[in-house]
Amino acid sequence: MLEQLSERVQKAINEEVFPGCVIGVVRNGEREVFPFGALRYDEGIPNVRENTIYDLASVTKSIPVASLAAMFVEQGKLKLDEKVTHYLPTLQNSYDASIVDLLEYRVRGSRMSRLRFSTFEQLRTHIFEEGFDGPPGKSEYTNLPAFILGFVLESAGGEILPALAEKYLFGPLEMHDTTFFPSDTKRIAPTEIVDGDEVRGIVHDESARIFAQKRRAVGHAGLFSTVPDLLKFVEALLQGKFPEIMNAAEQGLGWHLSQPWFMGDCGPKTFGKTGFTGTSVVIDREKNAGLLILSNRTYPERPPDAGSIQSGINAVRADIANIVFRMK
After folding, report:
1. What domains can you pick out in the chain, each with its CATH number?
2. Cα 23 to Cα 89, 138, 172, 299, 324, distances in angstroms
């Protein structure tokens, strides 16, 4: 497997899909971690390590946000059919949307990537005053539902999002490198150069960054982690330690379900999540296996096909998934 992975990753590096990456595989209880390449294209020697820290971007929506939601439903702190305003009474124009509508991305509203506010208070106030632009409808992936869900979790759990994630997931699993606010900048992969400054150690997503600058975490982006840490989470799911998370994920609640564009030749209950910065996780209970790919494909600047399913990073993701999941 290593030879196949090396060949495919080197091709991606040569094509400047990313300067380097870390791949993690867990299968039948055995973990393997493979670092490749560099943090930047101009670095002459490989310097990516097994414990390099990456910005997970939208993987945050699933780990920890959707995972916490599943746990809170099991514990009775949340009800899937309960209205969002039960937990967030100040949310305007809610159209009676429920928690399950958030998890299935059936509500729409302000495009957060287009909002320009100088403070997190202004951004949050705008979102809560505008609410949704209509009743729940067809699933359409945007940042807004996970952003709102993050505040729902804080209301239901009685603590801020980082504290909830640490209490229920990262602490028990000893995921010590997983945090919204990393401090060991030497191990962190940069994500982009913006106006001459390197984005490193603070979330790449612009709207989440407004909050992070004041050490506030949100539900749609902002988590940093390593492959070894995330393998602990994946293995815990495969070992049945969090059946509520596994069952919710296999229903597509807060996760992508059976998406060949990044999962390769996947089964109907294979689930996972991607992040804009070049990260992804895929889990298949039937094969008792999981895959992680962490990279900084947005460095030094985001590619022109960044939002396309046909993008270079997704071809790499699918090819690697096929290499990993086809192995006996």
Report:
1. 2-59+177-204+222-325 (3.40.710.10), 66-166 (1.20.58.710)
2. 43, 34, 23, 18, 10
